[in-house]
Amino acid sequence: MFVLTGCVHQCRNTSKHLEAPKISNRKTNSHNHHSIQLRLPKKMEQALQPEVSAEWSLDPTTHSFSSNPSPTLTFSLTNHSDQPITIYNEYLVPSRLLAEGSFTIFDLTADTEVHQLKTRFCDFVPPTNVHVPLRESMFHTLYPGTPVFFIATFGISKSPPRPSLPHQPLRPRGVHGLEIGHEYILRPGQGWGWVRWWEYGEKEEVINPPTGKLDGRTVAYKHSKAPHPGFQINIGTLPAIKFKCVE
Fold first, then answer.
1. Which residues contact 233 (CB under 8 A, 6 or more apart)?
2. Residue of 195, 238, 245 whose CA lies nearest to 57
3. Chain centroid to CA 186: how far?
4. pTM, whole model, 2 decimals?
């Protein structure tokens, strides 16, 4: 919401260009000055949302079970707006996305999709008498044109074991549980990339506004009180990544 404060005659010429703004007048002193509050129409507010793109990479793309640790999955976000924004990054952590099975892995050698080990995260709202701390580590400032990187191990552990025996099948996660000598392709999948909570400005000023420090419960669970409508990062442009597993 945008707030404009001043004399009525100063705003009369500009407010008519907005689509049916909601105006509330409140006397502020004896000179008949008013506080005018203008709420932009939903379409205009959505047009002002930031544009953020994503990139990702896997290193190395040849994994050796006998000599190398698990590959590293790197995910980056770049803000294409003209000012910094701070996001509450609860759903874009690559380790969580990997655990949830948000990415797809296709076995090119066997010509079949890999059925991955998936973990379901349940975010239950704590009782009202339980203090919810503000998770400051989840806030990240995206400066214009400067990528912010998030890194995760592409597997269950840094050093995944060799593939299991045929009679002991292992549900894969990352390279953990994949087959020696097989080539794979990693794709971004669907259903993720949503930024629910964000605000203009740098991290410190966002979490410590003039009205007082942000409330952990409000940020984490009271979604309707987010400062702006959320926005979707376009993950459809992320390229597929080919990789293979060797002895």
1. 52, 53, 54, 77, 92, 193, 194, 195
2. 238
3. 20
4. 0.73
CA-to-CA distance for 192 and 232, rounded, in angstroms?
8
Nearest 5°: CA angle at 71, between 188 and 58? Answer: 40
Copy the structure tokens of residue 201. Answer: 């400005």
* Residue that is written with structure tokens 């973990």 in the block: 119
Summarize pLDDT for 203-228 with one digit per residue, the tens.
999 999 999 999 999 999 999 999 99
d(CA 20, CA 7) in angstroms, rounded, equals 19
Alpha carbon distance 47, 152 (integer Å)? 33
Distance of CA 59 to the CA centre of its chain: 22
Cα separation of 80 and 231, whole Å? 14
Nearest alpha-carbon partner for 146 in 53, 47, 239, 48: 53
State the DSSP code for 173: B
Residue with tokens 């379409």: 43
Residue pair 77/147 in contact by the 8 Å Cβ criterion: yes
What the block records as the tokens of 27 is: 């006397």
Three-class secondary structure assignment of 189-205: CCCCCEECCEEECCHHH
